[in-house]
Amino acid sequence: MDYMIGVDIGTTSVKTVLFDNVGKVQGYSNNLYPLYQDVPDMAEEDPDEIFSAIVDGLTTVLRKANLSAGELKGVSFSAAMHSLILLDENHKPMTRAITWADNRAVKYADQLRENGVGKQIYEKTGTPIHPMTPFTKLIWLRNDHQDLFNKARWFVGIKEYVIYKLFGVLKEDYSIANATGMFNIFKMDWDDQALELAGVTRDQLPELVDTTDTVTGMNEDYARVIGIDPNTPFVMGASDGPLANLGVNAIDPGVVAVTIGTSGAVRVVTDKPKIDPKGRVFCYYLAPNKWVVGGPVNNGGIVFRWVRDQLFAPEKITAEQMKIDSYDLLTEIASKIPAGSDGLIFHPFLGGERAPIWDANARGSFFGLTRNHTRAHMVRAALEGIVYNLYTVLIALEEVVGKPVSIQATGGFARSALWRQMLADIFEQDVTIPESVEGTALGAAVLGMYSLGLIDDLSEVKQFVGVTNVHHPNPDTFEAYRALVPIYIRLSRQLQTEYKAIADFQRSQDAKKAKSDNEL
């Protein structure tokens, strides 16, 4: 039997998944690493800790599988978008990996949006202007950390660093390059205007290659540790969002993938690049004639975790003592409250927000609180608020690519029947839950199979993806949600005028606290 490994380099862990030639999982490893947040708005990772996690994951999976020679056909990568690492002339990291969640470039992102230059860049790159992007991060480093910036020889992301460590070549696939905010999606090359604004040149960036490009000739020391033939082909792969669509078989026109993990996203595949005149959605490359249009949100399951930890700490302890899942207990509590939470609305912007408002200063809020509302209302309102926000992304997406034909939903939230039904009710669409658990890793593996000629077309992914549940919208909820969603949207617009003011106040308080702590 033939086997393929999909490696999914995420924000907090790397998942290494061994698939057989019918897409079944035959080996799995999940290796964690920390997110460093030493100062306000920072979100960094150690690139060498990530590299070690990848080596450990491959080693673990291959040792357990005990494959015969030649059975492993290849390894293919998925990686989180928007990471940035500065390397010296010897390819040694001068910084940690600055992740998509890092907001320290917010001032420069705001300036680009205000002066109109950001719109020009977006219309060529398909990447909205936001502090998440390496483009804005480079402008921030160039202005605020000139010595560090000027000493750097190379500017790369985490996948490029891993490929270099393993193979000694510096390559970047179109999909990851696309997400830097400096890649012209119509010319399939770095964008001159973006490079000039960022202060970098082509010879400081990796060689651009297609997502189907392969590398071989692994460093023999690493090959020996992993237990892999050094000539095993490694496929460059793509970024995690586009591969998540592929991994749940959402690559046909009109098939929308909705993901809620720690963060979330709404995405659909088109056959050519498409730009939103209002700049609300991204357009990222997947493979030849496959472009993913959609919007990411910062606030998915991480909001549910905040509700659990800050509002339901006693219940969390009780669940642990009873050896039941604390999230299951909270969804059971939320299920007792009617749709619409009796008029309580929650804006889930606990970590700024990307689509559709693209405002790193956005902050969360409850609206409509009365004496009749309880903590149970608050947990249901939080879950509804996450889905309301995803629905606003879908509205923007519909203006660009048209109405969805069907919706495939994945992510950690898919474990919750209440949350799945909520999605169907608010979207007023059937929601299908694919059987594939590790959709992004499967997407990487399928792209690898296609690259290596093991399958003839990416559409063959449908053979690997089953269906576990289909949720139909409940008309009994339509009246409440149809009334509340417009209020949610109007409030988002009105509150945006004050988000910067409250965010600046919070940052000043954080700075004072940090100064006081240092003095102590």
Automatic annotation (TrEMBL):
Residues 257-451 form the Carbohydrate kinase FGGY C-terminal domain. One of its GO terms (molecular function) is gluconokinase activity. Its EC number is 2.7.1.12. Keywords: Kinase, Transferase. PROSITE patterns: FGGY_KINASES_2. CDD domains: ASKHA_NBD_FGGY_GntK. It is an enzyme of class 2 (transferase). Belongs to the FGGY kinase family. NCBIfam families: gntK_FGGY. This is Gluconokinase. It comes from Secundilactobacillus angelensis. The lineage of its organism: Bacteria, Bacillati, Bacillota, Bacilli, Lactobacillales.
